[in-house]
Every structure is written in C-alpha cells, then in structure tokens.
Design brief:
Layout: H1 3-6, H2 9-20, E1 22-33, E2 36-47, E3 50-61, E4 64-72, H3 84-87, E5 90-91
Antiparallel strand pairs: 1-2, 1-5, 2-3, 3-4
Length: about 90
C-alpha cells in the first residue's frame, strides 16, 4: 500500500464489506498500530452461527502505510479483548 492509497482504499474496502455482510455495523474508532495513533473501525456483522467482529485500522506505522484487518469471536471493547499476539501490533488504547 502507498500513502495515497490510504486516502481511499480502506473506505472502499469497508464499503465493499458492508454490501456483502448481513446486519453490517461500523463504528469509527481511534486505535494504535505499533504505538502510532491511526484511524480505524470496530465492525460487526451477522454470520450463520451468530455475530462476527473485526477491527480494521489504517495509517502510517514505522514509516510505512498499512491496513490491518483483525477478525475476532467477541466484540473488542478493550485491549484485553484482543489476543496476545495481535495486541503487539494493534491496540485500542496505549
């Protein structure tokens, strides 16, 4: 991904997801990628066996433009709701 792509690709990706998922909800959040504050969304949608959740975060981390998509089994409300390994990369609060 390039820096100019950060201006449009994440929103296009999320819009595409919204068109494909049932009961799609997105909540804008501020989160952290490698301790850099970035834009993101807390996403939920309906699956056959219940609800599914994702964190999508995008911005500049360590000088590189990145987009992170993390799928979760439960709604992420705090850092503790993110598994230990991904928490090294993405967090909701510092």
């Amino acid at each position: 991904m390039t820096e100019p792509m950060l201006q449009s690709v994440p929103e296009q990706f999320i819009s595409q997801m919204a068109g494909q998922m049932k009961k799609f909800k997105k909540e804008p959040i501020t989160c952290y990628l490698l301790d850099n504050e970035v834009k993101g969304y807390r996403i939920s949608f309906k699956k056959d066996n219940g609800a599914a959740y994702q964190l999508i975060a995008y911005g500049i981390a360590n000088g590189q433009p990145v987009l992170v998509q993390l799928s979760l089994d439960s709604e992420p409300k705090s850092n503790e709701d993110i598994p230990e390994f991904p928490r090294q990369i993405i967090r909701l609060t510092k």
